[in-house]
Specification:
The chain is 38% helix and 16% strand. The protein has 9 helices and 8 strands. It has helices at residues 4-16, 27-37, 88-96, 116-130, 145-159, 183-186, 196-207, 241-253, 278-299; strands at residues 46-52, 54-60, 70-74, 100-104, 138-143, 167-171, 230-235, 258-263. An 8-stranded mixed beta sheet has the order 1-2-4-3-5-6-7-8, with helices on both faces. Helix 8 links the parallel strand 7 and strand 8 (258-263). Helix 4 (116-130) packs across helix 5. It is globular, with a radius of gyration of 18 Å.
């Protein structure tokens, strides 16, 4: 049963956010508005700017061991908005869960269209390796577009014969920029936040006319062989629900480990509300447990 907080956030997003999305066509203004809404960093974490392959920030708890597992976190935002700062509620939670988190400030569209984000994610991962972090000590995670970018990174690493991370986590991932999932239309009214028009506009700005079915843009269209263990959490009401369920089916068919959990009522990337939403804390805790287990397994 969903919490009363989940029902409240669902109603608030539906009333104050979703109704205004079609009018948000000025990317610069939308970015400024979202950044202004970003709150203070979570208590008990240290934020430090750094260049690890590309610019970004470390999110850590003071005194954490240098041997602690490293999370490369790729933020969402449709490849056009948001930043490491806006996603500190999530990266801060993972820092408290025992990870040293690096969140790249990857370049975004429309100024930097596909495949720039993939290139920056690769640079960040290679930057971690160049610092001596072992791949068995690295996990990769991301939400929404960042979830799709996480899968694109795994595909790029595999195709380049580069070492894979220990595991990956996807939070409401966007894996099909062609927007072919049945949930796009089936959940059009049930999704409290996203709509097809906004997703199509983001895809247009990111792809600039390129084929949306290219695997590095839409990982759903890869055969997904030789993937590390993956966990997916998605909301049952999301228009992107089928981006998760179909991806899970393809990973499973390719013979890799996949765990998927579909949550009731919660909005897209509900984990960002973890300070007030029990389902947010529960989801992130489950994901952290999964990732820690596979870091330990690979390191053994």
């Amino acid at each position: 049963m969903a919490s009363w907080q989940a029902h409240g956030i669902d109603a608030g997003l539906r009333l104050f956010v979703k109704r205004r999305l079609p009018q948000d066509v000025d990317v610069v203004k939308v970015r400024a508005r979202i950044e202004k809404m970003a709150g203070r960093p979570p208590k008990g974490v240290r934020i430090s700017q750094a260049r690890v392959g590309c610019l970004g920030e470390w999110v850590e708890v003071p005194g954490i061991s240098a041997d602690a597992p490293v999370m490369l976190y790729l933020h969402g935002g449709g490849y056009v908005v948001c930043s490491p700062r806006t996603h500190r509620p999530i990266t801060g939670f993972f820092a408290h869960a025992g990870f040293r988190v690096f969140c790249p400030d990857y370049r975004m569209a429309p100024e930097n269209p596909f495949p720039t984000a993939v290139d920056d994610a690769l640079s960040a991962y290679e930057g971690l390796l160049s610092r001596g972090v072992q791949p068995d000590d690295i996990v990769v995670a991301g939400d929404s577009a960042g979830g799709g970018l996480t899968m694109a990174l795994l595909i790029a690493l595999r195709d380049r014969n580069r070492p894979m991370p220990a595991a990956a986590a996807l939070l409401s991932p966007w894996t099909d920029l062609a927007l072919t999932g049945k949930s796009i239309r089936k959940n059009a009214r049930r999704d409290a936040y996203l709509n097809e028009e906004g997703a199509a506009k983001s895809a247009e700005l990111y792809l600039r006319g390129k084929d949306p079915r290219m695997p590095l843009a839409s990982p759903l269209y890869d055969d997904l062989h030789n993937m590390p263990p993956v966990i997916i959490h998605v909301g049952g009401r999301e228009i992107l629900r089928d981006d998760s369920t179909r991806l899970a089916e393809r990973i499973r068919a390719a013979g890799s480990e996949i765990v998927i959990s579909i949550w009731p009522v919660v909005p897209h990337v509900w984990q960002i509300f973890n300070r007030i939403l029990p389902e947010g804390r529960q989801s992130l805790a489950q994901i952290a447990d999964f990732l820690h287990k596979h870091v330990r397994t690979r390191a053994a």
